[in-house]
């Protein structure tokens, strides 16, 4: 069992295209660089229904602290879903930034 915080990688194969393998390697490298234990990488495509919900389900089931994505282009509307940020931080490989988890006000 790792003492590091955990993360899941996420990408869309239709966005990565021929660069999918490279993007998966970049996700792994970003996990190492930012100190996350990468549990798995979730891959969706343009035909995957309700992508934001399915990604949130994966985050919840795996109990991870962060999602690592090649770029925001892999999210619908090229924006990190607010509902996802309520569950986990989001690390983008390009431009190399981390958006922290936002805990909803109670």
How would you portray this structure in words?
It is a single chain. This protein has 106 residues and is α/β, with parallel strands linked by helices. It is 33% helix and 25% strand. It has four helices and five strands, in the order E-H-H-E-H-E-H-E-E. The chain has a five-stranded mixed sheet, sandwiched between helices. It is globular, with a radius of gyration of 13 Å. The model has no long low-confidence stretch (mean pLDDT 95).
Tell me about the biggest sheet?
5 strands, mixed
Q: How many alpha or pi helices?
A: 4
Helix content: 25-40%
Write down the secondary-structure element order: EHHEHEHEE
Instruction: Provide the low-confidence segments as ranges.
Output: none
Mean pLDDT reading: 95
What coarse outline follows from CA principal-axis ratios?
globular
Which secondary-structure class do the elements indicate? alpha/beta
Beginning-to-end CA distance, first to last residue: 33 Å
Q: What percentage of amino acids are in beta strands? A: 15-25%
Number of strands: 5
Strand order of the biggest β-sheet: 2-1-3-4-5
Calculate Rg over CA atoms. 13 Å
What would the keywords be for this entry?
5-stranded mixed beta sheet; 4 helices; single chain; alpha/beta; globular; 106 residues
Describe the structure concisely for a colleague.
With 106 residues, this protein is α/β, with parallel strands linked by helices.
């Amino acid at each position: 069992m790792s003492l590091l915080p955990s993360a899941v990688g996420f990408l869309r194969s239709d966005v990565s295209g021929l660069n999918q393998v490279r993007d998966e390697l970049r996700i792994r490298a970003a996990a190492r660089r930012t100190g996350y234990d990468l549990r798995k990488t979730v891959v969706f495509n343009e035909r995957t229904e309700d992508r934001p919900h399915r990604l949130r389900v994966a985050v919840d089931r795996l109990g991870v602290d962060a999602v690592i994505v090649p770029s925001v282009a892999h999210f619908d509307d090229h924006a990190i879903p607010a509902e996802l940020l309520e569950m986990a931080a989001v690390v983008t490989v390009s431009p190399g930034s981390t958006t922290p988890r936002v805990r909803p006000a109670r």
